[in-house]
Amino acid sequence: MMYLDNGATSFHKPPGVYRAVSQAMLRCGNPGRGGYQAAMNAAETVYGCREAASGLFGCQPEQVVFTSNCTHGLNIAIRTLVKGGENVVVSGFEHNAVTRPLHALKANVRVAGRKLFDWDDTLTQFEKALRGGADAAVFTHVSNVFGYILPVEEMAALCRYYRVPFVIDAAQSAGTLPVNLEALGADFIAMPGHKGLLGPQGTGILLCGREPDPLICGGTGSASAQQDMPDFLPDRAEAGTLNVPGIAGLGEGLRYLRRVGIKNIFKREHRAAMACVQALERMEFRVFSGPHQAATVSFLPNTDCEEAAQLLAKQGIAVRAGLHCAPLAHGSAGTLDTGTVRVSFGHDASIQQVEAFCRAAAIL
């Protein structure tokens, strides 16, 4: 199978990730719940992953909260900043992991900037919305549908200027683009462990620039005599037993990224994506591409998008078609009625993958 659906999850992990998960299953108990060797092994594994994450994302280890996925982290962050009815600014390219929690909280959502690959429009509309009065802002770093890299540094600076607390969704950027909690001054940055960080599914990270409100309450292995959740990180946001095998694999994924370098991974992915754009344009498909694009390419085939993805699957090519859990982004791009076929490259991207994909796509 030629796997080109890394926007959903990285499927081919570095070999060390598989070994780390297996070893944790064999060696690790429950961290923070005992002084015996298996519990200590677990504690060391978990803290080692926190250290690896803090080194990569510009924060302290205790600011690294482990979650079950990016959506989990976004819910913690959003529900900390938004209690119900507030004015919240979002970009025009948000995932349902952002829009659905805001809808559930009955927030007054203001969508700012809906032109693809257009930083001027994004920043002009975003500042206008902030200036009009905002209680919070939530915005993605990279569109999961179109690979549009938003100007998050400038957006963060605007939030700081207008004193609006903000959350960054780094689901499609963590592991391939710089993400730094201290430099951005974000209140929260959420990311999955299973995409660009190359860890297992069921893992995620929430970087906390402020104290979060607990989403769930329970045992933490600390401050057990009190009935309130602990008032310190990361325990305040980590009720219950952690996914230690998953965190072990995530830690190895993070160490792999530091060895290889996220800049090198981005260059490899971006080279493949741009070659894919050029090939699809030569085949006269409608391709969504422009400046500030990551390793994701969406296009419209000459047939139904879902049917096109099925035809590709029969040829051993894995892509994703439809709305990609992001109807807001499709509405911004004018593809809400059709969806798109999405090709998303990963850390193992190559020109050979592009060539194989394009040979298969020629029948669409």
Structure description:
With 364 residues, this protein is of the alpha/beta class. The protein folds into two domains: 110 residues, Aspartate Aminotransferase, domain 1 (Alpha-Beta Complex), CATH 3.90.1150; 246 residues, Aspartate Aminotransferase, domain 2, CATH 3.40.640. Helices cover 41% and strands 15% of the residues. The protein has twelve helices and 13 strands. The chain has a seven-stranded mixed β-sheet, sandwiched between helices. The chain has a four-stranded antiparallel β-sheet with strand order 9-10-13-12, covered by helices on one side. The longest helix is centred in the N-terminal third of the chain and has 21 residues. It is globular, with a radius of gyration of 21 Å. The mean pLDDT is 97.
Proportion of helical residues: 40-55%
What is the molecular shape?
globular
CATH architecture of the largest domain: 3-Layer(aba) Sandwich
Q: What are the secondary-structure elements, in order, as H or E? A: EHHEHEHEHEHEHEEHHEEHEEHEH
* CATH hierarchy class name of the largest domain: Alpha Beta
The CATH H-level superfamily of the largest domain is Type I PLP-dependent aspartate aminotransferase-like (Major domain)
What is the CATH third-level topology name of the largest domain? Answer: Aspartate Aminotransferase, domain 2
Number of distinct beta strands: 13
Radius of gyration: 21 Å
Q: End-to-end span in angstroms?
A: 19 Å
Number of domains: 2
Average pLDDT across residues?
Answer: 97
Largest sheet features: 7 strands, mixed
Beta-strand percent range: 5-15%
Low-pLDDT windows of residues? none
Secondary structure tally, helices: 12
| Helix-and-strand structural type | alpha/beta
Question: Strand arrangement, largest sheet?
Answer: 2-8-7-6-5-3-4
